[in-house]
UniProtKB/TrEMBL annotation:
This is TetR family transcriptional regulator. It comes from Gemmatimonas aurantiaca. Keywords: DNA-binding, Transcription, Transcription regulation. GO terms for molecular function: DNA-binding transcription factor activity; transcription cis-regulatory region binding. Residues 44-63 bind DNA. SUPFAM superfamilies: Homeodomain-like (SSF46689). PANTHER family: HTH-TYPE TRANSCRIPTIONAL REGULATOR RUTR, MYCOFACTOCIN BIOSYNTHESIS TRANSCRIPTIONAL REGULATOR MFTR-RELATED. The lineage of its organism: Bacteria, Pseudomonadati, Gemmatimonadota, Gemmatimonadia, Gemmatimonadales. The keyword DNA-binding applies. Residues 21-81 form the HTH tetR-type domain. The keyword Mitochondrion does not apply. Residues 1-21 are annotated as: Disordered. Gene3D superfamilies: Tetracycline Repressor, domain 2.
Length: 206
């Protein structure tokens, strides 16, 4: 998650930036608390603004809609995972490094709060309509992180393909895990999905 969203001040942050960061984080925290308490559709922008101690106008200085609170939270969490990816050894293969990053972070996805938020997102037509755009943003940021680790320019086309395939594999794994109603851990489902991908890639190369 970014410094601004997580509440961790960057080294060069001034007073104005600190106040903005704190306000943004407070809006998100109050919004999430209301979403969990009342439900997403039942929570209004005015509810969030009142809980955060700001005006409706001030809310729009930080977020365009209550949807943006959820989307920003998703992407900030993703950025935290990418920060972890950027620390791996370039001796690993990129696809294995992405797999390991995802598997290592599945515990958070399986928490009761995460399940509640996931169900809330899937119950909202507006959020579901924005889901493909979120996947594209995740793919683009994953590609950037991969390029930060494997810096050879000649590998960039292959790294972009790794990003595309990895996001697709993650999506299928999550859908499989939901369909199985948690009979297996998310980590096991992810491992199997990437193993199946490896098997198919080897078969294609024969």
């Amino acid at each position: 998650m970014t410094d601004r969203a997580r509440g961790t001040p960057p080294e060069t942050e001034g007073l104005r930036e600190r106040k903005q960061r704190e306000t943004r984080a407070r809006i998100a925290a109050k919004g999430f608390a209301l979403f969990l308490e009342r439900g997403y559709d039942q929570t209004t922008l005015d509810d969030i603004a009142d809980a955060a101690g700001i005006s409706r106008r001030t809310f729009f200085s930080y977020y365009k809609s209550k949807d943006d609170i959820i989307i920003a939270w998703q992407l900030d969490g993703w950025q935290a995972m990418l920060a972890q990816l950027r620390t791996v050894s370039p001796d690993l293969t990129p696809l294995d490094a992405v797999r390991d990053m995802l598997v290592q972070n599945t515990a958070g996805f399986e928490s009761e709060q995460m399940k509640t938020i996931d169900a809330m997102m899937r119950s909202s037509d507006t959020l579901m309509a924005r889901k493909p755009a979120v996947y594209l943003l995740q793919e683009a940021s994953l590609y950037e992180a991969l390029c930060d680790v494997w810096r050879q320019p000649e590998r960039r086309t292959a790294l972009r393909m790794v990003a595309m395939v990895a996001i697709g594999t993650m999506r299928i794994a999550i859908e499989t895990w939901r369909a199985e109603q948690n009979t297996r851990s998310a980590a096991d489902v992810l491992q199997d999905a990437f193993s199946n991908l490896r098997t198919e890639l080897r078969a294609e190369s024969v």
